[in-house]
Amino acid sequence: KDQDIFPYLESNAPQNIIPEAYITIKNKEFTIKMNDHYINALSLDESAPVHDKIYKQNESKFNFLKTILSKRSETLYKIINMIITVQYEGILNNNQLKYRPLTQNMVAENINMHPSTISRGIHSRYIQINHTLYKLSDLFVQPYNSTISTHHIKHKIKYLIKNEPFRNPFSDDTLVSYLKGEDIF
Question: Which of 127, 128, 102, 132 is nearest to 115 (CA)?
């Protein structure tokens, strides 16, 4: 949070982003390695007297903290696994147009959690897939229907407008008829 990375980055600004997980895609399969090694590295001061009352109170708090951090990691693993499973084709082909419709509510329903948990879980979180950094929230795509995303429709419209004849631009009706021909409307 000390790194001024949101919402704008200077092109030469250092990007000190530590991903939550490292995903490797090989032979049409993916593996997720959570970046949670620090949890097991946490320990209490060995030089403190074990029978001390303050030590016992802090030991309980410390164990609770480790449990919470482990549960956070488990929850993130479930979220990331679901996202990668749904967006696999788009990620594999490095093509956002192949991203399937995916919302936080869809993930929440699939992994049996509340949507607010998903929202907190993906907020300002990154993953690294085969040496490429992805913002988790960027892998969510609003659905137009069960198979087509709004991102896909916007891209189609931009493509049509970009390639329309300069002297004879398309009317709205012409754009709609093109989209109907693609079974979008």
Answer: 102
Q: What is d(CA 174, CA 78) in angstroms, rounded to the nearest whole number?
A: 44
CA distances (Å), origin 19, targets 11, 30, 83, 135: 20, 16, 15, 9
Q: With left for phi above 0 and alpha for psi between -120 and 50, is residue 124 left, alpha or beta?
A: left
pLDDT < 70: residue spans in the chain: 1-15, 48, 50-51, 146, 185
Q: What is the reported pLDDT for 32?
A: 96
pLDDT in tens, 139-167: 988 877 767 777 778 878 888 888 888 88
Those residues whose C-beta lies under 8 Å from the C-beta of residue 82, and which sit 6 or more positions away, are 107, 110, 111
